[in-house]
Amino acid sequence: MSNWLPQSAAGKRWLGLAPSYFVIGIFMLVPMIIMAVFSFLEPNPYGGVKPVGSLAAYVKLFFEYDLEDNLVFNPGYINIIFRSFQLSFGATLLCLVFGFPVAYYITLQPENRRNFYIYLVTIPFWTNLLIRTFAWIIILGRGGVIETPLLAAGIIDDSLRMMYTDGAIAIGLTYSYLPLMVLPIYASLEKLDFRLLEAASDLYANRLEVMTKVVIPLCKPGIIAGCILVFIPCLGAFIAPNLLGGGKKLMLGSLVQFQFASARNWPFGAALSMLLLSAVVIMLIFYARAAKKRAAMEGD
Amino acid sequence: MIEQTQKASSPRARKKMLPVGHYRGLGGWTVFFFVFLYLPIVVLIFYSFNANRMVMNWGGFGFDWYLKAFQNEDIQKAVWNSLIVATIATIFATAIATIGALVLARGGNFRGKTISLGLITLPLMVPEIVTAVAVLIFFSAIGLKLGLGNVIIAHITFCIPFAFMPIRARLEGMDTSLEQAARDLYASEWETFRYITVPLLMPGIVAGAMLSFVISMDDFIITLMVGGAGSTTLPVYIYSMIRRGLTPEINAVSTLLLLVSIAIVTAYWVVSRKSEADTVH
After folding, report:
1. What is the ipTM of this complex?
2. What is the distance between the alpha carbons of residues B149 and B147, in angstroms, rounded to a whole number?
3. Pick the CATH number of B67-277 from 1.10.260.40, 1.10.3720.10, 3.40.50.150, 3.20.20.370
4. Which of A263, B9, B43, B261 could form a Cys-Cys staple with A127, CB 3.0–4.6 A?
5. Given an 8 Å threshold on Cβ–Cβ distance, is A238 in contact with B154?
6. Could A256 and B257 be called an inter-chain contact, meaning their C-beta atoms sit closer than 8 Å?
């Protein structure tokens, strides 16, 4: 065990980590704490906050004031939040169904070809999401790539009206985060010992059983990781609902942005962000516990 | 006769031959998957050569919109801003990530290691819109108005984990025997670091810098929220173009940005494969 850093030099260690702590601490952690505080303040009508404590932002999630100043239940925001979860869940499921067989197919390939396939999967992920979503407007839109040939062939005689629907948002989300599903599944499939499949087959498991009782249980960590990696950005998505949902079909992410750009209700925007953040934290805790449990089981 | 029976039975024979773990239709499914993944990119590039004023009405092949995009001063300004932000953010993020990775990969096990790792990868786990909101609120609370400076600070923050990952991976795959040999031959700690560690680590640092650059160039939401007037980057400008109306000019600019990203990621891929190939084990 030799290091260029002497083991004893704890000071040096912290000196090396100090810049990371400084930047991420000051410009990410502290802002999130301030955001939490802001969600409990009163809004300033021109943006920003008044230094007055208030639960109004959280009350606004469920209730509104009617003409006579009575609090009445308002399902509007709850519906948007519910829709966000629904669409994110749908997109995650689509990614899984679409991505799993591909990850599996890549695992079956010889090694050099596998790397090339992974390169092809990652390329879209590194290109601009806004641009790739914009391309879907050209594909799905009125007079777009799908409609034009169908109209010309006389198969349809009116626009299919695919844009500005939940379906368009779901396609956009699936497309945006598909690589995030394939990569972790591939990573866990790659470690799979294929002799286990043959052993199962020798013990009279049929093809379906080999898949459902051997392959899928063994790559469950990859599947769970993929689902979380897709679900989290879907929930906070802004681009797909904005471009493909036309800004009318709001999701949580676009609702947050709206509070800062147009509605100028910062505390409400902060409260919505807190909601989003807690959903993510709950999922990550769930994931960490599952991973710990698995590690403990493997240790036995 | 014999030939005929063989022909007739051969498809069935092949069906039986399909090895364990292989499934019918996987290849076709994968082809469909890649068509889905690349269709939008191909469509985007194809329509950038549309001579018509409307994106979706094909008006013949032409480079008109590329010319128009090149002459557009707002686009030039946005490209310039994007390059400034991405370059500065990459330099800082890569430097910070490199020393952080050295400590975390070589510092042995120490108290706070897991927390440090968690902190460095925090920007990857928090949804982008939440980061954007938090940073926006923070800058307004402390009254920081540096224009492009605000955007650069935000970019440095979320680029750190992207620079960190390949550097740490490289460090973990690196053999320490060369460094030990240098120390045995009376090289000082600094000399060992400068002449042995840094050159060996270089492919990781280059890879990390490339990823930071691409991530910074492509960022949209955080820049949209944090940047004020005058600090418009290219993706933010493209967004405003989309809102104004769909002309092939958007496709032309987008195609150029797309090709830059693909070129950098391809270079990253080549570098990291080479680095994998010549890692000493």
Report:
1. 0.88
2. 5
3. 1.10.3720.10
4. B261
5. no
6. no
